[in-house]
UniProtKB/TrEMBL annotation:
Lineage, opening ranks: Bacteria, Pseudomonadati, Pseudomonadota, Alphaproteobacteria, Hyphomicrobiales
InterPro entries: GHMP_kinase_C_dom, GHMP_kinase_C_sf, GHMP_kinase_N_dom, IspE, Ribosomal_Su5_D2-typ_SF, Ribsml_uS5_D2-typ_fold_subgr
SUPFAM superfamilies, alphabetized: GHMP Kinase, C-terminal domain (SSF55060), Ribosomal protein S5 domain 2-like (SSF54211)
Gene it is expressed from: ispE
Keywords from the UniProt entry: ATP-binding, Isoprene biosynthesis, Kinase, Nucleotide-binding, Transferase
Every GHMP kinase C-terminal domain range: 208-279
EC id: 2.7.1.148
Name used for this protein in its record: 4-diphosphocytidyl-2-C-methyl-D-erythritol kinase
GO BP annotations listed: isopentenyl diphosphate biosynthetic process, methylerythritol 4-phosphate pathway; terpenoid biosynthetic process
Record organism: Devosia marina
Occurrences of domain GHMP kinase N-terminal (ranges): 69-148
């Protein structure tokens, strides 16, 4: 019996996101503090004669399983770069637990999981720098999702600084079920040359340190996203009023909103509150994954 290889694709959360420069190529330089929650999609792979992808899970509806899916794009890109290290084909199954086009990684995390599967199957080590370069060509969030640990991302997402320390925290994630196109948010961005992130405390080990630092930061994509989807602003205010919430903010380009908490109980109670108030919304509580050991 062929053994399946499984990789998780954790939700990415931009705790802070500053847009610092519009580049000549039309893209933007960013600085972002990114963490990952222990709630995830799951990608399973079994060797086969050719590649195939099936998708299930609560957010599988409307998600194509053809060559434009980022999982298959990642597989194809890895195979083109390292044909001698790649299996002839993979039967892949993606369990889609995270909302699509939601600002929490989604397809990028799935693509990163595919790259980790192939790198793990390779008969010899795949150079980390080369794998990261390949990830960057698949999408701005894929390099960060490849690591799936607390880090600061700069440039267009390809310059990563993993954090050696990070406090134990919990998060409530809420999505109103409205997909937001990143390009639409950037088109409505008023300022393209905002100041960068302040220096992080060293060591960053206490929630209070992070809370004080976050008060000096923002998500520059939040105001234009709120204009596109007013529900985002309502959810930010709703989470801010829940007991124990250190910060409520939008992640990425939206529409997922997060509340940051010091305890697991507070995060779960906030999620339950949102479910009672907005039964059609997706809400989940999770721990934030710390640095790799």
């Amino acid at each position: 019996m062929v053994e399946a290889i499984v990789q998780t694709a954790p939700a990415k959360i931009n705790l802070a996101l500053h847009v610092t420069r519009r580049r000549e190529d039309g893209y933007h330089d960013l600085e972002s503090l990114i963490v990952f929650a222990d709630i995830f999609d799951e990608l399973e792979a079994v060797t086969a004669a050719e590649d195939s992808l099936t998708i299930s899970g609560p957010f599988s509806r409307g998600l194509g399983a053809g060559p434009n899916n980022l999982v298959l794009k990642a597989i194809a890109a890895f195979r083109a770069r390292w044909p001698e290290l790649s299996p002839p084909g993979l039967n892949l199954h993606l369990t889609k637990n995270l909302p699509v086009a939601a600002g929490i990684g989604g397809g990028s995390a799935d693509a990163a999981a595919a790259l980790r599967i192939l790198a793990g199957m390779a008969a010899e080590p795949v150079p980390v720098a080369d794998l990261a370069d390949l990830a960057a060509r698949l999408g701005a969030d894929v390099p960060a999702c490849l690591l799936s640990r607390p880090l600061v991302a700069r440039g267009v997402g390809e310059i990563l600084s993993p954090l050696p320390d990070f406090p134990q925290l919990h998060v409530t994630l809420v999505n109103p079920g409205v997909a937001v196109a990143t390009a639409d948010v950037f088109r409505r961005l008023r300022a393209h040359d905002n100041y960068p992130l302040p220096a992080l405390p060293e060591p960053l080990t206490r929630p209070a340190q992070l809370g004080l630092w976050l008060n000096e930061t923002r998500n520059d994509l939040q105001p234009p996203a709120v204009k596109l989807v007013p529900e985002i602003g309502v959810l930010i205010e709703e989470l801010a009023e829940t007991p124990g919430c250190m910060l409520s903010r939008m992640s990425g380009s939206g529409a997922t909103v997060f509340g940051l908490f010091g305890s697991e109980g507070q995060a779960h109670e906030a999620a339950n509150h949102i479910r009672r108030q907005y039964p059609d919304y997706w809400a989940a509580a999770a721990a934030i994954s710390g640095p790799a050991i």
